[in-house]
Amino acid sequence: MDDEDDADFLPPANTNTFAIPNEPDLLMEYDLYRPSMGTRRLHSERNREVYAEAFIENERLGTLADLCVRALAKMGTRYISPLVKHDPLKLRVHYDALDVNLPLKDCYFVDDVRFWRRVVLAKSSDKTLSLKKLDEYDWKGKGVSLKYVELVEACPAAYWPEKQMAELGSLVRQYVRTMHIQHLQSLTDESFTHYVESEEELDVTSEESVVSEISSDEKDTMDEEEECEEEEEEVTIVQPLKKKHGESGVRINEPKARMFEVEVHSISIASSGDLADHQESKKSIATDQEAQQKRRQARNARNAARQQLRELHAEKKEEHERRRRNRALLRIQPEPEPKRKKKKKAKKMPIEGVFDLAVEPEPEDNEDKVADGRNKEKLLRRIKRYDYPAKHCHHIDLSFVRYFDQLVSLTIEFLGPQMELNYHKRHMNFSYDDMLHLASGLHTLRQLKVFRLRNSRMDNIKLLILARVLKQLDALEIVDFGFDQLNDNCDVALEMLLERTKMYKALELEYNKLERTAVEAIGNALRCHSFNDPDGSPLEYLGLAHNPISDSGLTMLVRDLVGTNHVEELNINGIECPPYRVSANIGFLLRYHNPLRRLDMAAVMLNPSVGHELLRGLETNHKIIHFDCRACDLSLDQEFEADVIVRRNNYELQHTYLGDETQTEESLLQHLAGLRHPILTKIQNDLERRDECIRNRPSESSTDLSVNEEQDEEQEEEFDIWKMLGVKKSVIKPEIERQSSISSHQSNSGFVYNPNAFTLQEFREHLYLPGPGNRYYYFHKPDEM
């Protein structure tokens, strides 16, 4: 055959069009039955891909029909052949042949649970899912979520296909209940070039330019009008000093002035002789002033946060105007070049030899490098000074979560793309616009119960943006901001986060940098919620583990929690406090906080001397059922004593009659008489279920009547040709059937197995049924003997 024919029929050398098996057994058979080159060059074999010669008869390989089903499954899943759809075995082969990397738009309608289980196990990092059965997990919902998140994480940060992702989200939203986003793509290094080039040089300014005015858009309450009138006079006196010296604290001398007024008022009252009324009025005035001071500070902090958001919006608007001006400059058409005057052509000299020929220069190949005229040292200083701030590190539009209105759990981690050795901190940052987009998407998720934003670089402004939205979600139960590098200046955002009618069930703030101010804001918010709604839902779990909480912060938190219905489980593992303050505060909490049930305080600095005070407080508490004090430098005896106390509380919880003064001796004896051994209780429950099943089973008469009716109908439908021809047919009733029918109606007679009643055909059918492998020899052994 010619070479041209080889080029027409044979595939290119660098392509693999032959379905060569990967299994060792199949590969051996393929080598044995491999078609020759002459066979491959035949015109009828030019488009052949699957060679049936390689698949010899083998129980593990399947039939040729199964191979056809697998080949059809690789072509698509939208249309399944009726022959495959109506055969369960073929349908099982079809779903097992589907690839787990199919596009989501081509497989979201598949309802086979085994296929989605393979997808989840192949794409999920949670290896414990392999232990779950088919009916113990939402495999399809998890698989669809993983495939959609895979598309989201593959999108570049500079481009978000809004239309395509919205259409796909509308198709799969009914299946998605959970979503976990980890590795979002970040902007490339070229995207920050204009920030570096447009950066202005450092300028030394005066203190007056540094001070920023903070405006307030919140009106004062009616009960503080008189106080505000008095404060206006003080502000008018102190304001010139502020403009002169640039001081930020305008109302620094207010507490001293108020204390002076209180002292003057107390002297006037003491002169009247009513000392008792003077003490009560002094306490009430002090408490009112302290509450007003706290409200004023909280209001100023909220106004400062709002001013920061205004500045952020103004900066964003200025950046938008800058880009608009640049686009306008680019759209301006350049001025046309002036027309050059045509030069008069010189008279051509007569060509006398080769050297008189006019040779044109070669065209430019753009290989000449243009010298960079910029100041390289200055440019290098700018590049080094640029710190890739968070406001410039944008990601895709996270408001796409609004497509999934049935979302129950949302977890986001800004871990950047898969960097490996190419680490850069810009991959880990995210901007305020990302939080604004995420907040706009969260606003529509009314069924969201769990929200986690972990392993991210948060700050007070980002937390404030999310807090204003999360507090409006009534169904939200768990909020997690663990490992987010939150500082102590997040007090306003945390207090705003807890300002809601229906409190969360869990607030997880582990592994942050929260100190006294933030912890005090949390305690104050919980106390206000309990005061406004005493019968409301409480906060069950509060996680503050591995935060640098000071001794004053822990003291304020304990004082605010005592007397409220919040915090059934407290986690303060690894906090940084002096040992004596920890033992005193935790002992006070164990004695007087009734809702507390679980306390984790592992890896806290203690010692055996302060451990006795802690154990005395634990001994008085009969409700705590979990107490973790590992790695606290306590002695072994003290840890054993704490364990004994917890076991006592668990035993009292299981036996409620202990400690109940309303129980009498007769009621206790009656309760003890009703106790049973667990094994005996399980046997009794099984017997009761068996009796219930026997009572509810269908009656025997109804089945007999239905069988007789079906037999009568079949007899009426039969056409007896012998009867039409006049031939009488003798009816012989088998004795065995009569005896079996009689014995079936006798309830007292037992079942009798007659092995000799089987025919040879029935015996052969019995041999092909699944069972032990030596069944044939077992039946034939008596004949040989």
From TrEMBL:
GO biological process: nucleocytoplasmic transport
Recorded GO MF terms: GTPase activator activity; small GTPase binding
Region feature Disordered, mapped onto this chain: 206-250, 271-348, 693-717
Matching Gene3D superfamilies: Ribonuclease Inhibitor
Compositionally biased residues, Basic residues: 339-348
Bias kind Acidic residues: ranges: 220-235, 707-717
Entry protein name: Uncharacterized protein
Gene of this entry: Dvir\GJ14645
Gene Ontology CC: cytosol; nucleus; perinuclear region of cytoplasm
Superkingdom field: Eukaryota
Basic and acidic residues: compositionally biased ranges: 275-285, 308-321
Keywords recorded for this protein, A-Z: Coiled coil
Coiled-coil segments: 497-524
Species annotation: Drosophila virilis (Fruit fly)
Keyword Coiled coil: yes
Lineage, broadest ranks: Eukaryota, Metazoa, Ecdysozoa, Arthropoda, Hexapoda
